[in-house]
Amino acid sequence: xxxxxxxxxxxxxxxxxxxxxxxxxxxxxxxxxxxxxxxxxxxxxxxxxxxxxxxxxxxxxxxxxxxxxxxxxxxxxxxxxxxxxxxxxxxxxxxxxxxxxxxxxxxxxxxxxxxxxxxxxxxxxxxxxxxxxxxxxxxxxxxxxxxxxxxxxxxxxxxxxxxxxxxxxxxxxxxxxxxxxxxxxxxxxxxxxxxxxxxxxxxxxxxxxxxxxxxxxxxxxxxxxxxxxxxxxxxxxxxxxxxxxxxxxxxxxxxxxxxxxxxxxxxxxxxxxxxxxxxxxxxxxxxxxxxxxxxxxxxxxxxxxxxxxxxxxxxxxxxxxxxxxxxxxxxxxxxxxxxxxxxxxxxxxxxxxxxxxxxxxxxxxxxxxxxxxxxxxxxxxxxxxx
Length: 386
What we know:
By secondary structure, the protein is an alpha/beta fold. The chain is built from 13 helices and twelve strands. The chain has a single domain (14-371), classed as Alkaline Phosphatase, subunit A. The chain has helices spanning 26-29, 36-41, 66-73, 92-101, 112-120, 154-157, 162-184, 186-196, 201-208, 224-237, 258-282, 351-362, 368-371, and strands spanning 14-21, 30-31, 53-54, 60-61, 77-84, 130-133, 149-151, 244-250, 289-295, 314-319, 326-328, 349-350. Strands 1, 5, 6, 7, 8, 9, 10, 11 and 12 form a nine-stranded mixed beta sheet that branches. A three-stranded antiparallel beta sheet has the order 2-4-3. A hairpin with a 5-residue loop joins strand 3 and strand 4 (60-61). Helix 3 (66-73) crosses helix 11 and helix 10 packs parallel to helix 11 (258-282). The mean pLDDT is 88.
């Protein structure tokens, strides 16, 4: 068991979740560049060895993920290989629903992070305990009686009138209703909306004040994920007591045109996270922040002539100043005999093990009720805040 150093300065741990929507191609993000079977099955989308960015004797980064290579070399990234579940689904909706609720066999009404909010703020005293940057509200943050604030554009919020804020919130709630009514029924969705819909307006008003206190030398790129992560820094450094931040980076469903599309997204994502971490360090606000980057599933081993189709085993990343950098779990076997469904990489670690590790070791919470059971943990931290 690794001995974890306790910090002398007390800060509350903060979790930032970045969702890669659509199913990131982990095999083309962390590339098994010494495996002939990789090149044999990916004549179109495979990244040639001379273009990849090796970081071990057998693994390399996609050339557009150079910023992740730098973060890894700093020792601040844990690469969690082969993340998935035995109840894997190739449906975007169902797969993401499983990740959001930790319920692989039933359609649940409570998100895993909503349960975390309830633990941290049981009386809903702070409407910005959890903040989502984006449209709608992620299922992970939703549960009856739990308040999470969702905001589309922090700069515009500060300029909106009360009526405009209400209209913006109503649009978000309509998105939520359209997304989740088919799965859990209109009755439960409307019950959720009636309990939480208006409570978050005060949270939005609090967030609107955050930009005026923020100054930075970091120049973020002009794209949604960079803007969202800059907003995370602005709210975090405003001292509003937010413990959970959530945002999404969309577009990873590369059935076609994967080569240019994936490269663009990885550049946006990895550069934004590198800038985000630098911004936090500049504000003496990095020590307490842990970033989880996840996606709902991986892609198939064979390309389809233009891209890759939905697969099974994928991967996740933990990033932070107190993360013990390295490889965790095992890269799924590429041997044909081990392919799931005859075409997918298998999973080697359950996603609930990832959650359990973060909840127990980083957030200081008992994970069993939140993730729905006892799951083996690993040890990705050099220091914790709990």
